[in-house]
Every structure is written in structure tokens, then in C-alpha cells.
Amino acid sequence: MNKEEIIKEINMEAAGVKEDTDEKDGKKAHSPEHYYGDIIRKLFFLGSIAILVTFPFFYDVLPYSGLSILGGATLFILLAGLTSPKQRLVLFFDAIVSFVAIVFFEYYSVQFYLWNNGAFEKWFLFLVSYFLSINFLFAFYFSVKTLRRIFSKSKI
Questions:
Q1: Cα angle at 35 between 8 and 12, to 5 degrees?
Q2: N or C: which end of the chain has fewer CB within 10 A?
Q3: 132-142 b/e (C-beta count within 10 Å ≥ 16 → b)
Q4: Angle, CA of 5, 156 and 41, to the nearest 5°
Q5: What is the 3-state secondary structure (H, E, C) of 122-152?
Q6: Once rounded to an integer, what is the mean pLDDT over residues 137-154?
Q7: Nearest-angstrom CA–CA distance, 23 and 79
Q8: At how many degrees (to 10) do helices 120-151 and 37-54 cross?
Q9: Quick check: 149 and 91 in contact, CB under 8 A?
Q10: Which range has the worst mean pLDDT, 14-23, 48-57, 88-97, 109-118?
Q11: How far apart are CA 89 and CA 92, in angstroms?
Q12: What is the C-alpha to C-alpha distance for residues 11 and 92, in angstroms, rounded to an integer?
């Protein structure tokens, strides 16, 4: 890093601007402060991986269809890939989908806990569902925080 790049980075940091992972014209694009799309992207990716890794082992004891599981995991990956500071509608969908995921996984974590009866599968499904509800709770928080910044008086 040369002297100009260091000064530019210090000025950007003082202005509350951070680098985004999206590449544009060979340079890193800069996103404003309070943009948490990178975190949302990682949380959606983590949730999708957890769903897809555990799905084959517990297919026969799940109370919902396998198609809905695969569709949900694919939706999380789709939104993770589309999340960008320039795509405000996608950020809105991030918040909606993460809210629905919280309700879905928390509901089923309670159901798996109540249906446990000492069965290892139900206990493990309880833990996975509970983890996913917490994961998407964080995704919802960061989505709403980003949306709050978008809809506030100052622009992104």
C-alpha cells in the first residue's frame, strides 16, 4: 500500500464508508456505513448449508415436505447471491424471508422439543431448528438495520 492509498483508506474510514465484496470495474465497490449485506449473505449461506447437511439424515421424521426444505435452502442462497447495497428490493426481501424463517424454525424447534420422547432424531432436530431460528434472527436484525438506513433521511 502506498501513501495515497493509506490516506484514502483513512478518509473513507472517517467518513463511515467501508469496502463491499462486490467488484466493479476491477476496483472494490464502496458501501456506506450501516450496510450489513455481507453479514446477511453469510448468515443466509450458513443457514442453507445447515439445512442441506441435516436434511438427508432426518427426511423420514420431518413433518414438512422435502421439496419445501430444498426450496427454502435454494431461496436463501438466491437471496445471498443477490444481496447488494444497490438492490434495495432484495434487502427488503432479505428481511421478509428471514422473518418467515425465524417463525418457521422457532415453531418447529418447540414442536421437536415437545415431541422429543427421548428420541435422538427429535432432540437433534430441536437443536438444528433452534440454531436456524437464532441464525435467521441475526439475519433479520441486520436486514432491518440496513433497511432503516435506506429509508432514513440520509441516503445510502
A1: 10
A2: N
A3: bbebbbbbbbb
A4: 85
A5: HHHHHHHHHHHHHHHHHHHHHHHHHHHHHHC
A6: 86
A7: 18
A8: 160
A9: no
A10: 14-23
A11: 5
A12: 30
Please give the full DSSP string across 51-102, using - where no structure is assigned. Answer: HHHHGGGSGGG-SS-HHHHHHHHHHHHHHHHH--TT-HHHHHHHHHHHHHHH
Question: Residue 7's pLDDT is what?
Answer: 56
Running DSSP on this structure, what letter comes out for residue 19? E
pLDDT above 50 (res 22) = no
> Does pLDDT of 3 surpass 70?
no
Residues 116 and 126 sit within 8 Å (Cβ to Cβ):
yes
C-alpha cell recorded at residue 19:
469496502
**What integer pLDDT is reported at residue 10 of this predicted model?**
55
**Strand, helix or coil for residue 17:** strand
Q: Report residue 129 as a C-alpha cell.
A: 431448528
